[in-house]
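Final report, closing paragraph on structural work. Over the funding period we assembled a curated collection of sequence-structure pairs, and we close with a single example.
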Amino acid sequence: MKIGIPRAMYYYYFKDLFINLFNELNIDIIVSPETTREILELGEKYASDEMCLAMKVFIGHVAYLEGKCDYVLIPRVENYGLSSQTCTNFLAIYDIINNLFNMRIINYNINLRKKETELKGLIKELKKLGLSKKEIKDAYTIAKVKESKIKKNNVLNNLRNLRSEKSKILIVGHPYNINDKLIGGDVLKILKKLNVEIIYSDLFYTKDEYLNYSKGLYFKDSKDNISSISKCYNKINGIIFISSFPCGTDSLIFELVMRKLNKPYLNLVIDDQESSVGIETRIESFIDIISSMIR
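Its predicted structure, as stored:
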């Protein structure tokens, strides 16, 4: 048996859990490769024009996995509580893929409002593969411990980088945009070439720091992203916002926050254009401005 995991969207939240869980269960997995122009074009073949770039990329990764695995893992993440909703893409993602492809899907739902937890969902789905409840629960416990250790180390590295003497830029965005090679890869590459210390918005432990900017945020990931600004505001030299076109949630929330900033910022909306020259010019100009302010 081989389970396919698309390297897009939820992968960047749950990859350490998935990889360690299936390793503990001795189940082979295949993770699709880093996003390429060909994978995006695969996604665009099936996607509707109104879908955001990140969703088109996800569909492309699923299309890549077709015929290469027995099941594709596609969780549905609905909410983490009353005021912690997820993007509608995370709600609809299973139904979209189920209607586009003739593939067997391992699917579970996270909806804490209805007490549908990650563990309950995984037990229900993986028992269909012949695994016992105890096997799944034991493997899940070990995988969660390993996931927690990896997150802790990543957060510590992020905090350590805040003490760097280089210019420090906070990258604010969803990890599936920032860390995807095609969407945010060029941005990270350009910043590293410019000898800038990159601070990542998803690598903090946050609570309610977003309240400094908005008391009415509804989406969990947006709360985490915006809270990161408060976490390191006095230690960074500038902020770069990254979103994928045409994300309505990010466009609204980022604009709301940017109006309240008293610090240099750059708003990058990434689309499916092939050239990154325009982005490189904007980032270089932004870093030049920050450098002139420091001198």
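The mean pLDDT is 94. The chain has two domains: 2-148, 162-294. We thank the funder for supporting this effort.
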